[in-house]
C-alpha cells in the first residue's frame, strides 16, 4: 500500500508564514508539518510515499522520492491536485493525507485495515477540539452524518446545529482503485471550471449521492490536529511532541 501527501497549496490563511515556503513546511514544535505525516505513514507500514507539489516545489525536493506536480495549483482545488497521482491511484490502494494535519500512526493503520473502496477517518469527539479553535465551532464545521456500518450519508454542507455533525473529517483517506475511478467518473462529467473548484468534501458528497460506491467512516479518537492559522500553532504547541513523537 502506498501513501500520497497533498502539499500543493500555499495556505494563504497562514499569512506571512507561507510567504516563502509552502504550508506543509511551517513548523510545529520545531518540526515541519510534513515530517509528522511522513513519520506517521511510515510507522504504519507504508514504505513508499509520494508528495503532490505545487507552490515552491523546489523546497520540497529533499523530502520525497516520488513527486506528482500540479502546475495549476493556484487555479485548482485539492481533488485536482490528487488527480496528478492518478497513476498510483489506478494501480493500487493508496492512503491519502492532507499536509496541514498531524496524527498518530494508528490513524492510517485503521484505514489500511478497513475493507472499503473509499474510506475516511473521522473524530467523533470533534466538538471539544473545535471549541478550543473557534468561538463558534459551527462556523467552521461541516455536516457529517452516518448510516449503517458507519457509511456516510452526508458530508460537507453548512450545519445549523451540532446534531448534524456526528464527526469531523480529518483529511486522511483510503482509495482503492474502484473508489478513485468513481471520483474520476464524476469529475469527467463536470464542466472544466467546476471541476477545478471541486473540493474534497464536495467530491465525497457527490460520490454518496451517486450511490455506486459507499464512503465508509473510520472512527479515530487519538491525538490529531489541523493547522489553519497561527492561532492553531499556538494551540497545539507542546501537544505534538508529547503525543505524536
Structure overview:
With 245 residues, the chain is α/β, with parallel strands linked by helices. The chain has a single domain (2-243), classed as Spore Coat Polysaccharide Biosynthesis Protein SpsA, Chain A. The chain is built from 10 helices and 13 strands. The protein has a 7-stranded mixed β-sheet. Strands 2-3 form a two-stranded antiparallel sheet. Helix 6 (177-188) crosses helix 8 (200-210). The longest helix is centred in the C-terminal third of the chain and has 12 residues, at 177-188.
Q: Number of domains in the coordinates? A: 1
Strand content: 15-25%
Q: Examine the coordinates and then state which fold CATH places here, giving the name of the CATH topology.
A: Spore Coat Polysaccharide Biosynthesis Protein SpsA, Chain A
CATH class assignment:
Alpha Beta
Output the helix-strand order.
Answer: EEEHEEHHEEHEHEEEHHHEEHH
Total beta strands: 13
Question: Can you tell me the CATH architecture?
Answer: Alpha-Beta Complex
Uncertain spans, ≥5 residues at pLDDT below 50? none
Amount of helix: 25-40%
Shape: globular
Outline:
By secondary structure, the chain is of the alpha/beta class. The chain is built from ten helices and 13 strands.
What characteristics describe this protein?
two-stranded antiparallel ribbon, 32% helix, Spore Coat Polysaccharide Biosynthesis Protein SpsA, Chain A, 245 residues
Amino acid at each position: 500500500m502506498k501513501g500520497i501527501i497533498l502539499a500543493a497549496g500555499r495556505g494563504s490563511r497562514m499569512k506571512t508564514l507561507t510567504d516563502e515556503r509552502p504550508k506543509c513546511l511551517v513548523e510545529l514544535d520545531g518540526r515541519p508539518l510534513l515530517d509528522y505525516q511522513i513519520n506517521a505513514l511510515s510507522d504504519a507500514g507504508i514504505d513508499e510515499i509520494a508528495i503532490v507539489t505545487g507552490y515552491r516545489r523546489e523546497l520540497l525536493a529533499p523530502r520525497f522520492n516520488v513527486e506528482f506536480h500540479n502546475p495549476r495549483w493556484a487555479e485548482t482545488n485539492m481533488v485536482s491536485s490528487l488527480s496528478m497521482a492518478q497513476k498510483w491511484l489506478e494501480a493500487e490502494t493508496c492512503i491519502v493525507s492532507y499536509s496541514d494535519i498531524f496524527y498518530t500512526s494508528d490513524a492510517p493503520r485503521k484505514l489500511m485495515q478497513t475493507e472499503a473502496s473509499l474510506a475516511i477517518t473521522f473524530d467523533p469527539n470533534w466538538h471539544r477540539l473545535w471549541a478550543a479553535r473557534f468561538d463558534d465551532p459551527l462556523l467552521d464545521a461541516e455536516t457529517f452524518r452516518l448510516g449503517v456500518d458507519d457509511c456516510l450519508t452526508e458530508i460537507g454542507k453548512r450545519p445549523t446545529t451540532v446534531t448534524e455533525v456526528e464527526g469531523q473529517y480529518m483529511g486522511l483517506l483510503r482509495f482503492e482503485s474502484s473508489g478513485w475511478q468513481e471520483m474520476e467518473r464524476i469529475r469527467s462529467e463536470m464542466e472544466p471550471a467546476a471541476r477545478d473548484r471541486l473540493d474534497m468534501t464536495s467530491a465525497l458528497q457527490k460520490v454518496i449521492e451517486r450511490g455506486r460506491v459507499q464512503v465508509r467512516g473510520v472512527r479515530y479518537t487519538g491525538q490529531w490536529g489541523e493547522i489553519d492559522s497561527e492561532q492553531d500553532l499556538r494551540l497545539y504547541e507542546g501537544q505534538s511532541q508529547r503525543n505524536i513523537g
